[in-house]
Structure to design on (504 residues):
């Protein structure tokens, strides 16, 4: 048996208007090749880089969110290597004085023994800023490559973890939580499929109980969370066979993930450690960041883990609902506004008069949490998926959704008709108006329910006889018939009570 040792290197494209050291646009999706470039992007003689202040601010903000120590002084360096996507033969990056070091990110993982969720701390070694390289395009069957410089010089942040990741599943969870943090901060859209977040993994094995580090393999070309997980699973299988055969990896190597064949493919053997001949970038002065770090610390928003905890503690949502609803900042804000509207409505009710805010929440949070969580994560999201509607284009406002929940909470509408009402709210209309117009509201007329019960009992003598002979399962059939008789508008509880009184 072997222990898995994984370290991750993540590049995230910073969400700025312009590139790291020039005024060219950062987002170049959809632009013709080589149209978002300038002499600075291509390293022409005589050009001077100018640091993007917003990129630095977002880098510091991300570092703080990852509990990193901000270096009071930092600098940029030239990283030298020759490749067609790097026209000036060096990349402006950071070597020995990155903007931040010694952080961590906690992720929630299932405990192997109990199955319960526990927190795992993955240490962050460093976070630094750098510029991206150009993009190489290889035509099928052609013996040459094309270079698109639109991406050259784009603002990146690179985060490097310690080898603390213990499994492919943990790697996936770490990346998902990191992406969420980047989006909450507005630091990056971090879409792996679009190349806005890229991950390389270093993986090795060692016998259980052994604390030594053995030769690692670098895995590249993973463009989704699933690809990262599958590539690492494959590497574990491959390296396990080598260890079992008595020939563990003894040379550093780089392998690429083939998503079609679902295997890693050898790209190169690293005989020696790369010598990038780093030296300080002479055209960018050292950074003194104490004041800027203090400013960014004041602007940190509530992060995903804290919001999840608050949604469960304050609103009473289940942990699974809280995870779903905080997994997208738009949904988290929608949920927040919905509860805000509901508690404002509760405070206006006569029977809440004289109660404190805490007492109102304590008295009502359980039922409200079940309604809001259930109808958001199951019903509303399900309908949106069927209709191919995104939260950003949804016409149902938090105010209207809160009103919809209030109708359910006060038994103005039953569960059967609530879904019909919700479907009719997609045009942005007021739920109470729709309910009244389409006669979806719950019937409270005891006489009407009694007449419907009599009608069903008269038309279903066989089922009545079966019930009286002890076959209680037919009760639900009779309730269903009565609900149909009232066009689904009767209170199921009142129907059941009226039926039981008459059938005995």
């Amino acid at each position: 048996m072997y222990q898995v040792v994984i370290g991750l290197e993540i590049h995230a494209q910073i969400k700025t208007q312009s590139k790291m050291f020039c005024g060219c646009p950062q987002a170049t999706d959809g632009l013709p090749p080589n149209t978002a470039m300038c002499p600075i992007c291509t390293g022409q003689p005589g050009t001077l880089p100018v640091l993007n202040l917003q990129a630095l601010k977002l880098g510091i903000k991300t570092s703080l969110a990852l509990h990193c120590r901000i270096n009071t002084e930092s600098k940029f360096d030239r990283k030298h290597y020759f490749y067609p996507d790097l026209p000036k033969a060096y990349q402006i990056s950071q070597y020995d004085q990155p903007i931040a070091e010694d952080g961590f990110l906690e992720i929630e993982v299932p405990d192997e023994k109990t199955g319960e969720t526990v927190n795992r701390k993955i240490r962050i070694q460093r976070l630094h800023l750098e510029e991206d390289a150009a993009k190489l395009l290889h035509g099928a069957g052609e013996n040459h490559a094309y270079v698109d410089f639109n991406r050259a010089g784009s603002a990146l942040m690179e985060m490097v973890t310690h080898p603390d990741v213990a499994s492919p599943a943990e790697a996936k969870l770490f990346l998902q939580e990191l992406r969420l943090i980047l989006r909450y901060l507005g630091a990056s859209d971090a879409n792996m499929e679009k190349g806005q977040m890229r991950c390389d993994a270093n993986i090795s094995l060692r016998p259980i109980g052994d604390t030594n580090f053995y030769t690692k393999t670098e895995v590249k070309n993973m463009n989704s969370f699933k690809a990262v997980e599958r590539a690492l699973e494959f590497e574990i299988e491959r390296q396990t066979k080598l260890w079992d055969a008595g020939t563990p990896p003894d040379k550093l190597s780089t392998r690429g993930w083939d998503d079609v064949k679902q295997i890693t493919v050898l790209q190169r053997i690293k005989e020696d450690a790369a010598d990038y001949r780093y030296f300080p970038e002479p055209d960018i002065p050292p950074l003194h960041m104490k004041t800027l770090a203090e400013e960014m610390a004041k602007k940190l928003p509530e992060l995903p883990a804290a919001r999840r905890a608050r949604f469960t503690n304050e609103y009473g949502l289940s942990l699974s609902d809280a995870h779903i609803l905080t997994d997208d900042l738009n949904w988290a804000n929608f949920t927040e506004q919905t509860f805000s509207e509901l508690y404002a409505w509760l405070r206006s009710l006569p029977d809440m008069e004289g109660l404190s805010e805490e007492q109102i929440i304590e008295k009502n949070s359980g039922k409200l949490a079940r309604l809001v969580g259930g109808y958001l994560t199951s019903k509303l999201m399900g309908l949106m998926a069927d209709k191919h509607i995104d939260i950003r284009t949804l016409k149902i406002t938090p105010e209207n959704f809160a009103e919809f929940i209030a109708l359910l909470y006060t038994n103005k509408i039953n569960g059967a008709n609530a879904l019909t009402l919700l479907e009719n709210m997609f045009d942005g209309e007021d739920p109470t108006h729709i309910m009244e117009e389409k006669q979806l509201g719950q019937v409270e007329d005891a006489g009407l329910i009694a007449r419907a019960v009599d009608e069903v009992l008269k038309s279903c003598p066989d089922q009545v006889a079966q019930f009286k002979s002890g076959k209680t399962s037919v009760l639900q059939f009779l309730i269903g018939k009565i609900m149909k008789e009232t066009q689904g508008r009767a209170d199921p509880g009142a129907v059941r009570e009226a039926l039981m009184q008459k059938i005995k």
Remarks:
- Residues 77 and 280 are 4 Å apart (CA to CA).
